[in-house]
Amino acid sequence: EVLSGTLDWSSMHTDPAFWRENVTKFEEKDCKVLRVLLKLLEVSRDSRTLAVACHDVGQFMQHHSHGKFIVQELKGKELAMGLMAHADPEVQKQALLCVQKLMISNWEFFK
Question: Which phi and psi (to 5°) does residue 51 adopt?
C-alpha cells in the first residue's frame, strides 16, 4: 500500500501487534518503505494519505528502538512540522502526534 502512493485507514495502521511484528521491515532496502512514507509527506496532496503517513511515521518511531533517530536523520521532523499548519484538521492532528513522538524519551508515559 505504501509503495502505491495512496494510503487509507485500515486495521494494519492502527494495530499495535502489526507494528511490533513488522517495524523492522521498514528498515529493509535502505529504509525504502520509511523513505516512501516521508516522500508522501513531502509531495502528496491527498489529505487522507498525509494523515495516515504521519500516523505511520509516528508508529515507526514508537515501535522501533532507534526510530526517532532514523526519522530525524531522514528529515522527517521538518516534514511533519510543516504539516501541522495543513488546512485539513486530521492532517494537523496526525502531524502534531508525529512530532510529539519525536520529542518523547520515555514511552511508558505516553498513552
Answer: -65, -45
Long-range CB contacts (within 8 A, 24+) of 104-108: 104/68, 107/62
Planar angle of CA 37, 92, 44, nearest 5 degrees: 35
Nearest to 70 by CA among 18, 100, 34, 41: 34
Distance, in Å, from the CA atom of 68 to the CA atom of 12, rounded to the nearest integer, reads 21
Cell numbers representing residue 65 in the block: 528502538
Q: For residue 55, what is its C-alpha cell?
A: 500516523
Total number of residues shown for the chain:
111
pTM of this structure: 0.90
Per-residue pLDDT of the chain in tens (111 residues, 90 and over written 9): 787 888 999 888 889 899 989 999 988 999 999 999 999 999 999 999 999 999 999 999 999 989 999 999 999 999 999 999 999 999 999 999 999 998 876 655 555
Burial of 29 (0-12, 13-18, 19+ CB in 10 A): exposed
Give me 79's grid cell. Answer: 516534514
